[in-house]
Specification:
Oligomer: heterodimer
Largest sheet of chain A: 5 strands, parallel
Helix content of chain B: 40-55%
Order of helices and strands of chain A: HHEHEHEHHEHEHEEEHEHHHHHH
Shape of chain B: flat
Largest interface: A-B, 46 and 48 residues
CATH topology of the largest domain in chain A: Rossmann fold
Distance between the termini of chain A: 46 Å
Helix content of chain A: 40-55%
Structural class of chain B: alpha/beta
Radius of gyration of chain B: 26 Å
CATH architecture of the largest domain in chain A: 3-Layer(aba) Sandwich
Order of helices and strands of chain B: HHHHHHHHHHEEHEEHEEHHHEHEHE
Strand content of chain A: 5-15%
Strand order of the largest sheet of chain A: 2-5-8-1-9
CATH superfamily of the largest domain in chain A: P-loop containing nucleotide triphosphate hydrolases
Number of domains of chain A: 2
Strand content of chain B: 5-15%
Number of strands of chain B: 9
CATH superfamily of the largest domain in chain B: von Willebrand factor, type A domain
Strand order of the largest sheet of chain B: 6-5-4-7-8-9
CATH topology of the largest domain in chain B: Rossmann fold
Number of domains of chain B: 3
CATH class of the largest domain in chain B: Alpha Beta
CATH class of the largest domain in chain A: Alpha Beta
CATH architecture of the largest domain in chain B: 3-Layer(aba) Sandwich
Distance between the termini of chain B: 80 Å
Chain lengths: 298, 371
């Protein structure tokens, strides 16, 4: 029956992702499966450090394809995201062709050929032989104008270069879009995409992640670390520690040969907090008493 | 007796029917789901199979949600629609919130309605103050109705829009092509020179981009501010219409986002929605707590190094001044400018001596008269 087949598929994928080092909740796996079926982009939202970017990386690893990443930033324009002509080479070519006897049209064709085209991530993603994973990271940092442009590409997977003509996608990439929510995304983009919100993990999931990513940490220590971080997230902080911070902190504690979080380890705990909290106010919130209380609760 | 697979098929048909109605149910609950979503929904349900509730839930959640608050409400709406036992509980609850505004709750273009979304939370968080202030007089005194008073509205709004367009832009480090500039845009120049056979007649320039700062308006809507808050709301509405990046909040004992309500193209409906938001609040002003709540829930998302935060309040605060001072200090570190508009400021003989203003003063970039 179809239903159980889907459930099986889901379990297989979850196991595959876990093997690649990503502990995914079933809802995320369902979203990924649907994305493969419908060929729609997947929009991931969530606080910084909960593993949004990682989803794309692990997806590429599981599918054994390339990961093409477009890091968005303010002022990113179409040229640096799609294609650019290599002007320096073109200029050089024009100089060299000055004494060439060929006709103008032919020269022009030569100058605007693919040899002089610099492929940027978006063009590269749709001209691959194998469908790659295209990660559009932190799309909220780019301007709204760019968002509209992106939308156009994502809806029909073709783009036009005036001098060359229309480039059609030879393969449809799997698009993962991430956003930190610093700017409200347009409804049009949201409508186009599947959506998944990644929350901070619960205790069991975070423990599984720490065990998978930092296998050298003893089980008891890993459990304590996770309990500590979960407690820290309940404090009133400007920036709650994400999973990346948990892993950093685990590495830091291992480096200092801490074997258990208790009163004896108070000093290395205080020393390594910089891996966990990243602002002065938050650091000030972690007084020795607070740390002792959190450690005692582990 | 029928064959088992026939029974299954009949059940699948019934289920498909149920699935097809689901997007409409979500839309009625304020989701941005359009008519075009019906087909993908059925397709997704077909792929996921309708007999496995969890798989169907996750699949539809990915497909039909568009933002965080929808994502968080999805589970209970899904249960309400698909699980028969809970079926009647949910609409009832919804009705209770939906009942007071006859027009306000049905945004015609399927627009977002986060204010309604917050309603269940409001009742929970706010149970104490609301019960304490059982008389409704306090609530009705916040007169947002004046927002749409017809006579001067258009004049004032035109004035405000002109003012909004003149707001100074901040110069960024990033460059973009410009008509005049300080740096030659070589690729652009060569591209233009194509028209004249490779001779660059027309130069292209680049210059640093200028953008307007993001504005976050925090409007005090307490009783003492009643004569002014409507004016500020109108200002917020005009600014929001003219500039893209304006985020408005009103507070008295807690803070509520009103940008969506203000942007409603129908002024009457905007007014209805604001009126709704103002209801259920206590009487006093707790500026410190409101700002702390803003810091906690919205600041990380909204306030960055190019944000100007404008607090519009008379500074009469019944809360703890230390809390106000602390909250403003935090806000000050995040934002580019913190401005306080005090409508009482230009009255003869006014000095910012009340506790709230005393606590706030050290953290302000500018205290200005605002009325």
């Amino acid at each position: 029956m179809t239903a159980s087949r889907r459930a099986q598929e889901l379990a297989t994928w979850q196991a595959d992702l876990a093997r690649a080092g990503y502990i995914a909740e079933p809802a995320l796996v369902a979203a990924l499966l649907l994305m493969l079926d419908l060929g729609r982009p997947l929009l991931l939202e969530g606080d910084a450090g909960v593993g949004k970017t990682e989803v794309a990386k692990v997806l590429a690893a599981v599918r054994c394809t390339r990961l093409i990443r477009l890091q968005c930033y303010e002022g990113l324009d179409a040229h640096s995201a799609m294609y650019e002509w290599n002007y320096q080479r073109q200029l050089l070519a024009i100089k060299l062709l000055e004494h060439d006897t060929r006709g103008i049209a032919q020269k022009e064709q030569d100058i605007f050929s693919e040899r002089y085209l610099l492929k940027r991530p978006l063009l590269e993603a749709i001209t691959c032989d194998e469908p790659p994973v295209l990660l559009i990271d932190e799309v909220d940092r780019a301007d709204e104008a760019f968002e509209a442009y992106l939308l156009e590409l994502l809806s029909d997977f073709q783009l036009s270069i005036p001098e060359l003509g229309t480039v059609r996608a030879t393969s449809q990439p799997l698009v993962v879009v991430t956003s930190n929510g610093t700017r409200e995304l347009s409804d049009a983009l949201r409508r186009r995409c599947l959506y998944h919100y990644i929350d901070y993990p619960d205790h069991a999931k975070e423990l599984a992640i720490v065990r998978a990513r930092a296998p050298q940490a003893p089980a008891a220590l890993a459990r304590q670390i996770v309990a500590f971080v979960q407690g820290a997230r309940r404090l009133e902080l400007q920036k709650k520690p994400g999973i990346a911070e948990t892993l950093d902190w685990t590495a830091a504690l291992l480096r200092l040969d801490v074997v258990a979080i208790d009163a004896a380890a108070a000093e290395p705990l205080m020393d390594t907090l910089g891996a966990l909290v990243k602002s002065r106010d938050d650091r000030a919130a972690f007084t020795p008493e607070v740390v002792a209380r959190l450690a005692a609760a582990c | 007796m029928k064959e088992p697979h026939l029974i299954l098929e009949a059940r699948a048909l019934l289920a498909a029917d149920r699935v097809a109605g689901f997007p409409g149910f979500l839309r009625a609950n304020g989701f941005a789901v359009g008519g075009a979503d019906a087909v993908p929904t059925l397709r997704a349900a077909q792929l996921a199979g309708v007999t496995e509730p969890h798989v169907l839930r996750w699949t539809l959640q990915a497909l039909l949600c568009g933002r965080c608050d929808e994502w968080q409400r999805f589970d209970e709406l899904f249960d309400a629609w698909f699980l028969p036992a809970n079926r009647w509980q949910q609409p009832q609850r919804h009705d209770r919130h939906a009942a007071p505004p006859p027009v306000g709750l049905q945004p015609g273009r399927g627009a977002q309605d986060p204010d309604d979304a917050e309603d269940p939370d409001d009742t929970r968080d706010d149970a104490r103050p609301r019960d304490a202030a059982s008389s409704r007089e306090v609530l009705s005194s916040t007169d947002f109705r004046a927002l749409a008073a017809r006579e001067h509205t258009l004049d004032i709004e035109a004035l405000m829009r002109r003012f909004a367009r003149q707001l100074r832009r901040i110069r960024l480090r990033r460059e973009a092509s410009a008509r005049h500039g300080r740096r030659l845009d070589l690729p652009g120049t060569i591209r233009r020179s194509l028209a004249s056979g490779g001779t660059p007649f027309h130069l292209a320039w680049r210059d640093r981009r200028r953008v307007r700062p993001r504005l976050v308006l925090l409007i005090d809507a307490s009783r003492s501010m009643a004569p002014y808050s409507f004016f500020y709301l109108r200002l917020a509405r005009a600014l929001g219409a003219e500039l893209g990046d304006v985020h408005s909040f009103i507070f008295h004992t807690r803070i509520t986002a009103v940008s969506q309500a203000l942007q409603d193209p129908d002024p009457w409906r905007a007014q209805e929605r604001l009126h709704l938001l103002a209801q259920g609040w206590g009487g006093g002003t707790r500026i410190g707590e409101s700002l702390a709540q803003f810091n906690r829930e919205h600041a990380a998302r909204l306030v960055h190094a190019r944000t100007a935060v404008v607090v519009m309040s008379d500074g009469y605060d019944t809360g703890d001044p230390a809390l106000l001072s602390d909250a403003l200090a935090r806000l000050r570190r995040r934002a580019r400018r913190v401005v306080w508009l005090n409508p009482l400021c230009d009255r003869p003989g006014y000095a910012p001596v009340c506790q709230g203003m005393q606590a706030a003063l050290p953290h302000l970039d500018l205290l200005a008269p605002g009325a």
